[in-house]
Amino acid sequence: MDYRFSVITPEISRLAERSIDSYRIAPELYTQYDVKRGLRDINGNGVIAGLTNISTIKVLDMGDGMPNHGDGKLYYRGIDVEDIVEGFIKEKRFGFEETVYLLLFGAMPSEHELAEFRQLLADFRSLPPTFTRDVIMKAPSDNMMNTLAKSVLALYSYDDYANDISIPNVLRQCIELITLFPVLAVYGYSAYKYSSEGGSLYIHDPRPELSIAENLLYMLRPDKSFTELEARILDLALVLHAEHGGGNNSTFTVHVVSSSGTDTYSAIAAALGSLKGPKHGGANIKVAMMLDDMKQSVRDWTDEEEVRGYLRKLLHKEAFDRAGLIYGMGHAVYSQSDPRAKVFKSFVEKLSSEKGRHDEFALYSLVERLAPEVIAEERRIYKGVCANVDFYSGFVYRMLGIPDELFTPIFAVSRIAGWSAHRIEELINSNKIIRPAYKAISPMREYTDMENRMD
After folding, report:
1. Is 299 exposed, middle or buried (0-12, 13-18, 19+ CB in 10 A)?
2. In the predicted model, is pLDDT for residue 4 greater than 70?
3. pTM for the structure as a whole
4. Which residues have a Cβ under 8 Å from the Cβ of 428 and sit 6 or more positions away?
5. Which of 241, 244, 255, 331 is catalytic?
6. Catalytic annotation on 134?
7. First to last CA, the chain
8. Whole-number average pLDDT of the chain
9. What tens digit of pLDDT does each residue of 119-155 get?
10. Which range is most confident: 19-28, 260-269, 432-441?
11. How far apart are CA 147 and CA 152, in angstroms?
């Protein structure tokens, strides 16, 4: 038999049908037993599963008596992320490294502390000897999130203190992973393109004097060149994606896995598996692909009724991937506005002007305005709907010449900062494994001997 993971035989298909039937749970049972599906109640409020010092997500009260109905606010260690970004812009400096410091250590660094931290990141920004050849170049994958997870797990073998979960050692491991993620992502993509398409292989060593955002563009581009606006907007994207509370799927995964006492590499690889999903970090690719389909389907991008018609088709499962979703719209917490998307939008407009793609930006803006109206008309919703940060990020990455395969890995390059902070917080404060309850609903049955079983 030909050994291939991709083959689904008729026998597997038959067993799958039987399996599906045995797993089905009637939707009304979730209401009957008051199960907080997705750990959220009927109003969208999250079930409190822990406490955190790292970030705060708020929805401002509009005074209309409606739950979760107001503008969203995000705070890193108690500081408004909009103020953080404004400070970076005003002082014209790259801010992601400073944001990492804030998340890890609880305060904004002084100029001296930041210089020392940048030097520490630069010192750790080297892969083990032969790692690129032995791990990254061998068996390259077309999915960069799997490549990234494989590389993280492989780094375990190069760490003499891999299983040491003392805070100094975990902090050292996290700082190394934060500074190595851009290298692993870009090298993994280069290896995949080389193996699948041939041609030249570009492996550019990162430069110690460059920021993480600058190094990403420097390593990715064959000519190593980029503009200041490009680097600053990518840096802004990293700042805005760095952290979003303990309840998002990948960060909660870090808490759950860390609570078992496992090693840092396993915890971060588990988070990567979560972020890969299209309902989480993979949403930015879906938004870009959805807009590609819209641009092909809508003749006049400025015609509001034509755009509305396409959005209705999306909800009716008649367009794009027929999933019934308008990707990039809606958030588990935010209703009127996602502060990250609000901050991002003005810079997206600047970049679209520099790249001669203002018509596309206008289409994105139109969809952002119309989609909540169409969703409200077509669906019963308990709160408002707004564009989330994923809505614009894919468009930005496209304008930066970043391949689609790296969209979600760049999200990971940023979110590893938050994951690291939450892992350390879990290890310091928790002495119990996280283990929520599931209610069993299958009926009790008697064991049947083999001779009495029916085919």
Report:
1. exposed
2. no
3. 0.90
4. 167
5. 331
6. no
7. 27
8. 90
9. 999 999 999 999 999 999 988 999 999 999 999 999 9
10. 260-269
11. 9
- The fourth-level CATH superfamily of domain 55-278+406-429 is Citrate Synthase, domain 1 (1.10.580.10)
Look at residue 66 and tell me whether its pLDDT is greater than 60. no
Instruction: Give me the amino acid identity at 128.
Output: P
Residue with tokens 């109640």: 41
CA 19 from centroid of its chain's CA atoms: 31
Contact criterion met (CB below 8 Å) for 145 and 130: no
| Percentage of residues in the chain having pLDDT higher than 70 | 94
Query: What residue type is assigned to position 3 of the chain?
Result: Y
Domain range annotation of the chain: 55-278+406-429, 283-399
Q: Is position 205 annotated as part of the catalytic site? A: no
| Domain 283-399 CATH superfamily | Cytochrome P450-Terp, domain 2 (1.10.230.10)
User: Does the pLDDT of residue 350 top 60, yes or no?
Assistant: yes
- Contact between 310 and 317 under an 8 Å Cβ cutoff? The reply is no
Evaluate whether 69 touches 45 at the Cβ level (below 8 Å): no
Q: Give residue 1's pLDDT.
A: 42
Share of the chain above pLDDT 90, in %: 65
* Residue 389 near residue 341, CB atoms below 8 Å: yes
Select which of 241, 255, 390, 422 is catalytic.
390
